[in-house]
Amino acid sequence: MAKQGRLEMDSEQHITHRKIIHIDMDAFYASVEQRDNPVYRGKAIAVGGSPEGRGGVVATASYEARKFGVRSAMPSKKALQLCPHLIFIRPRFDAYKAVSAQIREIFSRYTDLIEPLSLDEAYLDVTEDKLQIGSAIEIARQIKQAIRDELQLTASAGISINKFVAKIASDLNKPDGFTFIGPSSIKNFMEGLAVEKFHGVGKVTADKMKKMGLYTGADLKRLSEQELKNYFGKVGSFYYQIVRGIDNRAVQPHRETKSLGAEDTFPVDLTTLEEMEVELEKIGQTVYNRLQRYQLKGRTITLKVKYNDFRQITRNQSFPFPVGDYETIVATAKQLLAATLADDHKIRLLGITLSNFQDNQMTDTDKANQVTQLSLFD
């Protein structure tokens, strides 16, 4: 068996390629609840949020709820408006973490090169697999079947030669999806892909692209790297690479969380403190939910503010002890915001991040299985 880095040979072009699988569980939290509680099966349920619609956001919605337009990170009030019979369930993060460990054990039968992105999704590099199966497609099939047989859950799989394309592939035919995008198909696939389908392009950026007449990968491909950087900043170089299906990032199984946060760009600039505080409450709820998911607390809270003239500032406050409760996160963010506001202010983006995590909060294994930074963009 060759050393890590030996890649799959493309017989037509004589180019070596990695074999990457992206596994994404289907409506993970909601599916675990439906599996463990028969009364919820076939029902529109939302994990997280508030049944009275008085606050909080949806962490995960079942596919029955998604038919009504309910989505993750949606405020409870809006979710109830879309689906009046929606059932809200309090999250059981210990249960989800236990199931996630079982899923990871299935992955480890085939490779040690596993990079979890969260409890419910991960990249696997199976360029060299433990069982010497040799086919990423067959390995993905076996993993999906094991998850179904052993855990009574479904997962979607994307298979390709790099992480970016594999992740997009896993999202194409959900739920229970299975999509392979081979080397010879990447060019046409990326050129035909709608800009909003590109992982990393959020709603605000997608809307900006469309106003510029950029609707597909082929449209983006017409622009030079410098033009993309001029229009979108440093991320323009990333767009230039991925629209060509180029992603040389390796699957990294030993990465530690450095920070965790969420941010939102607003379609209309915020002009009043009241509006800004309402948005901070929503963002704070998202951050709190994610801290709970990863069982993290941090000593430093950072506020990010971007004004309508594209000036950007960050302000932070550190504590002598780790914090992770919703009230402290939001109250601190509001205090930092109030200290940054000038008389004439128009804000287009707000973000909250926690960092400086406790060293002893997670086991070494847990630390190794976290990604470097977890953020929500656009």
UniProtKB/TrEMBL annotation:
Cofactor(s) required for function per UniProt: Mg(2+)
A Gene Ontology cellular-component term: cytosol
Residues annotated to bind Mg(2+): 24, 120
GO terms classed as biological process: DNA repair; DNA-templated DNA replication; error-prone translesion synthesis; SOS response
Cofactor mode of binding and number, as noted: Binds 2 magnesium ions per subunit.
Active site residues per record: 121
GO molecular function: damaged DNA binding; DNA-directed DNA polymerase activity; magnesium ion binding
Keyword Metal-binding recorded: yes
InterPro entries: DNA/RNA_pol_sf, DNA_pol_Y-fam_lit_finger_sf, DNA_pol_Y-fam_little_finger, DNA_polymerase-Y, DNApol_IV, IMS_HHH_1, Rev_trsase/Diguanyl_cyclase, UmuC
Keyword annotations: Cytoplasm, DNA damage, DNA repair, DNA replication, DNA-binding, DNA-directed DNA polymerase, Magnesium, Metal-binding, Mutator protein, Nucleotidyltransferase, Transferase
The protein's Enzyme Commission number: 2.7.7.7
Record-annotated UmuC domain positions: 20-202
Pfam families named among the record's database cross-references: IMS (PF00817), IMS_C (PF11799), IMS_HHH_1 (PF21999)
Location in the cell: Cytoplasm
Keyword Heme attached: no
Reactions the enzyme catalyzes: DNA(n) + a 2'-deoxyribonucleoside 5'-triphosphate = DNA(n+1) + diphosphate
Assembly mode: Monomer.
Free-text function comment from the UniProt entry: Poorly processive, error-prone DNA polymerase involved in untargeted mutagenesis. Copies undamaged DNA at stalled replication forks, which arise in vivo from mismatched or misaligned primer ends. These misaligned primers can be extended by PolIV. Exhibits no 3'-5' exonuclease (proofreading) activity. May be involved in translesional synthesis, in conjunction with the beta clamp from PolIII.
Name assigned to this protein: DNA polymerase IV
Organism per entry: Chitinophaga terrae
The organism's taxonomic lineage, starting at the top: Bacteria, Pseudomonadati, Bacteroidota, Chitinophagia, Chitinophagales
GN (gene name): dinB
